[in-house]
Structures are given as C-alpha cells and as structure tokens.
Amino acid sequence: MELRHLRYFVATAQAQSFTKAAQALHIAQPPLGQQIRALEEEIGTPLFLRQGRGIVLSDAGAVFLTSALDILARVEAAKKDALRAAGGELGTLTLGFTESASFNEVVTSLISRYQQQYPEVGITLLEGNSETLIKRLSRGELDAAIVRPPFASTGDIALQVLSEEPLMVVLPSSHRLVRRKRLRLEDLRDERFVLYSRKSGYGLSADIVAECRRRGFNPSIHQQAPQVSSAVNLVSAGMGIAIVPASMQRMQRPGLVFRELALEQPKAILGLATCPARQSVVIEHLLACAQLGTGEAEQVS
Amino acid sequence: MELRHLRYFVATAQAQSFTKAAQALHIAQPPLGQQIRALEEEIGTPLFLRQGRGIVLSDAGAVFLTSALDILARVEAAKKDALRAAGGELGTLTLGFTESASFNEVVTSLISRYQQQYPEVGITLLEGNSETLIKRLSRGELDAAIVRPPFASTGDIALQVLSEEPLMVVLPSSHRLVRRKRLRLEDLRDERFVLYSRKSGYGLSADIVAECRRRGFNPSIHQQAPQVSSAVNLVSAGMGIAIVPASMQRMQRPGLVFRELALEQPKAILGLATCPARQSVVIEHLLACAQLGTGEAEQVS
DNA sequence: TAAAAATACTCCATAGGTATTTTAT
DNA sequence: ATAAAATACCTATGGAGTATTTTTA
Asked: Which of A124, A266, B12, B225 is the most exposed place for a label (fewest CB within 10 A)?
C-alpha cells in the first residue's frame, strides 16, 4: 500500500464516482479503478459496492475512509513537525546540572525562560557531578550541562559562563565567628573545614585549599561531603565550617549562619557546557537564552 | 510523499546506515539514498547528517521518525479495521424505534444483547412513529427500525417479528370496570376511548376500531394522542380508557389500572424492519441477534 | 586504506493513458 | 439510450540495478 492508494480512495469516496474522482485527480478513470482494486485486494475486502452505474462506500470502506483521512492528515502534520524540529521549535533537550546549580537564580531562570520560549521542546533534566556530566556530554548522552569549572575535559567542550558568584563562609550559629559580618580567609586558619571534593582532584574545593596554602596555612579537613548541599548540612550539624558559593544561602535553615568572605579569587563559576562537535538548533537556542540572561559569554576549552 | 519513503526512512534510521538498511529492504544502496534525498527535499530539511562514513539522525529526523512509525502503525491498523468492519465487528448502526417499543422487554434485550456481542459497533438510536421510520429506512437514513405493523410500505421492506403481545385495557383506578379481572371488548361499548393514531390510517388503533365494528359497535373516540404513552397519560388524567400493548404495564403509576382483554386478534406486534436492497453484515448480525432472541422469524413484505 | 555514501548511467516494472466494451438505469 | 465502470492494450515515468567515484575515520 502507498499513500497514493489512500489519496485516490479518499477522492473516490468523496466524489462517490470513479469518473469524477479521476477528473479531480487529473488522471484517467481506468488507472484509478485499477489502483482502488489493488487497494481492495491488499486489504482483503471491497471498499466500494459497484452498482454498474455509480458506486457507494461499503461498511469496510466507510471505516477505512476515516482511517485514510486521519493518516493523510498525520502525514502533513509529520512534515510540518519535522520542519519545526529543524527550526528548534519542537524536539528534546537532555540537560545535565550539578546539584549546587539548582540553588542558583541564574540557572533556574535560564531553564524557565527557555521553556517559556520553546514550550514544545521536552526537557529531560539529569543531576550529576561536573566530571560525570562532562563525560556524558562528550559521549553524546547530554545535549548540554550546567557545571562548575574547573574540570578535566576529554575532547572539545565549550563553556559559556552563566554566573560568577563570590564565596561565603557557612558557620554553625553557635560559632564564635558569627559576631563578625565579614571574614578573611586568614581568620579561618584554625577552623575545621567541611569540604566537598571530586575524585579527579579538580574543582572548587581544590582551588580553596590552594588559596589557603598561598596564604600560608594548611586547612584542617575534618569532613568530606559528596555534594555542596551535604557539606552545608554537616556544618549545621556542627561538624565544622565550609566555604560555599553565595547562592547556597537559599539553603537557609535554623542553626546555620552565612558570612561574607573578603576574597577576590577564586570565584564560584557556573557554566553551560556544550559539545561543539554535536551542535543543533535546540542547543543554539539554549546558548542564546543563556547569553541573553548573563549579557556576556566566554569560550573556554 | 509515499509510504515507501516512510518505510525506507524508518529502516535507515534504525540501521543507522544506508548500506545496512538497503540490505534489510532487499534493494541496492543507491536507490535508497535517492529516495531518502527526495523525502528530505519534500520536507524541506535534512533528516540525516551525512558524515562521509556513516550517518546520524538530525533533530528533524528524530521527530520525523516518531511520526513515521506512528503513521506506518496506523496504516496497518487501518487495514485490520477495514477487515473487521467487513466482518461486522466494527462500524455504525443507525436504528429507529417507535416510542412504545422502549417499554418492550424483547426490544430492550435485543439491543443490549447486540451491543454486548458487537461492542465496537456504534449504535445511533432514533425515535419516531412507524410510518416515518419506514420512510427513513427506504431512504437509507436508517439501517433498521423497530416498528409496529401494519404500515404503508413504499418499496421493499422485510419485517422480522420480535414480539407478539396481547392487548390490555387501561382504566383510571376510579373506573367502575376495575372490579373485573378480565374484560371483553363488548364490555367497553359505552366507554370513551383514548386512541393513538397515525395520519396514514394504518396502525394498531385502526385495527382496534375495525374489530369493535365487527362486534357491532362504534367506539366513541374522545381523545386522540400522538403516542401510546401519551394515551396512557390521558387515561390516568381520567379522559377515558385505552387499549394498549401488554408491555405498557411497565408504565405503572398511581391512578392507573391494567386489565386483561379477552381478545385473540388483533395482537400488538413489534417487528424489526430492514431494507433487503441495502443489506450489510452489521444488519445481518442484528437480524441474527433478533432471531436468537425470539426463536422464530417471519418475512412480510 | 577501507568502509560507506554519492554519482552516473542503464533498465524495466508499473502507474497512467487511449480505445472499447459491458452494465445498469 | 446513456452514463458510468470494467476490460484490453499501449506508453513512459521513475524506482531500482550496476559500475564507479568520492569521502572520511
């Protein structure tokens, strides 16, 4: 069966006549009759009742007519959808994000803004740490990922900076330093640190430790947490202090105090990582949305 | 676009390769590539990204793949549905019935039994008097009609008797005759009759009047009602007495008394009328259902 | 350099056309 | 008698095949 058979059948059913339908289709009557007969043979039942002069739809034909109209409409819709997909209006977007990104206003507004502009793109969100996300991005399992540099990158990865936030100190509310509005890194030389670190050795924690050493002390690492939010939880349980991105303040809870840190570098960066080798209009639109949100862009390999 | 394009596209997308897909389709690789290219040109966007060695679906291709699979599945379903429609399993049935038929157990059980056996046949019920229904049946507006003979029939109409019920007398409960269990027609000679009659002059009422005359009296017709049920309503309002099919007892209400009538002829007949010129499997199944329900059949022109 | 897609060309199956007959109103 | 479908036969478009070249991993 071919769509031609359906088109011819619909025309014949609507014209209630082979001759008239053939005229409408700009073909001769005999080939139309042949095509309809071939269709009937394939289906296994007559679709028209021949009454010598004139024809009427059989019961099977009436049912098949609704199916045929539906199928032909879907074929047209399929064409339009494919075009819209090519224009990035329709499709899917698999987006990875690090746990701490969900606390950042820039990130959440990016996703909601994109979804508002492209409501027919289905977004699949996937949480993971930056290293894993970058690995998945390289493998093509993700279209884009919101991660915290630095990270070990295998292959070509483009990073567009979404947000650069200062670091803050989180203290248990019983801590002696809560009296101070603003702390310097040196003020923390004798504190017990709760860090969140990656197996790779990269990441914000490593940068913080390096900065401490540059300032002449080796921080005592009392606890290791897998994620930033779990580090904050350990602080609220009195296990030590932590240095976290400012956006973690959203995680406000009793027994927890955030204090400014007088420190220019390092900053907590959130970036939108993409794989230039695997570009698509959908991803380009997401990048454009991100650019519009931050007002600036950066390219890092 | 033809279904061939969709079949080739799906095979290619699933094989992720023109060469492999061509093998699966039992055609050579070049014509497959040509068909896919023609499809892409018609849609207006590439469906595959050619990477010299190997191909991958584009975003548009991914969206089009789901559409193509859906369409191909619907084509198969359409074939099956048409066959099932030819077998009377699927379709529509437009069934007329006289108002009084809805009180008859044989009729209601026929419809429910048919619907149970053929749940995918959509039944449209249409009420009307017997004359109108027969006219509509002849015009092909109805597939079948449950009517009360006799009626004026234009054209060839087959009637299968569904139910032959005795007639009963309906009296207001205040009536002097309610004391009697069983009445003869002669007992009613001085009563005021409420009749339900048709413009055509045919019908049960006409038969009853004829039977009265045969027994030597002319019934005084006090009221005319358009339907049997409205005649019964008039009786309950004290406007007279009526002779109705036994199944009208279902219309029990205060102030209304039903009494047996000692009368062999006429009987109140309900029949399933069909148009032999416009047969179909669906109608045949309905007739078979009716035959099973009554255990007998009759053919009347 | 090897595997896969693209190109160039040929062939034939079949969609479609023409002429005519059959059928039912 | 006539209008419409069916039959018979012919034509030619385009789908499919064969041979070869191009591309890239």
From this structure: A124
